[in-house]
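Below sits our specimen:

——
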Amino acid sequence: MVDSKHQWKAWIYLAPAIALLLVFTVWPIINTVRMAFLENYSGLKAAGGQAFAFGLGNFTKVIEYRRFVSCLKNTVLLCVWTVPISTVLALLIAVSLNAIRPLQRTLQTIFFLPYVTNSIAIGMVFAAMFNIVGSFYGTENEIVVTAGIINNIIEFFGGEPVNWINYGSTYTANLTVMIVYIVWNALPFKILVLLGGLQSINKQYYEAARVDGTPRWRVLTRITVPLLSPMLAYVIITSFIDGFKEYTSIVGIFGENMGPPDDAGRLNTMVGFIYDSLSTNSQGRASAAALILFAIILVVTLVNLRISKKRVHY
């Protein structure tokens, strides 16, 4: 503990960080709350000296917006599908990596590479994989479609090519692409956290189970998962928070249209809705949407914390 006579030195060291937090974190939060309750607030109008009445009109406009339900549905669906799938896959991969001694560090590095790669760049790669690359006229003037890598694999196993993201694609196909991408992109961080938790578990539990002849699936469900529950709870909570903030992955695959060319905005999310409001200089509506998203994330986080109190074993 710092001696009371030298606490001023600690405050001097902390002052730059505190100042940055106040300017770039605390004040924006306060200002967002303020703008959300100012009717039809606009930065340009405020700069011109216009006054704004206090009220809940911005929240009403957000809820009544025709795309709001669609944005909320997309956000919830992406969370509901990607969080369980990615968490289970990360757990299985982490357990497998923990059991492999040769090349363990190399495999860890390979699995971690997507985490340090730009999300937009990864999205462009996935777009190319699921895309229909192009079409040309064959020898008898028929139109021949050149499929992407994923469709080539499907055709190799005797299936029919699927229009994943192009003109005329279905909502289910678009959502499937996004689920695959988000799950793949979320795995590295989860694997790293769970693998660290696995390596901290006392090996005596596994030795006792081996002596008793306990099946591997029972070791996983009765020893590994309970002892790893604090890490799993952390991973699930942070995954839901990240899932509700999903935006860059959709832009990486579909571009600014947030959907196929014939239905722009089909896969728009709550964060995308906020950016759309900012682009039209509707800061009040964007702030209200941000507070609604914050409230949703807060409720989901509190529910997860409530459940984890009963399920997590420390």
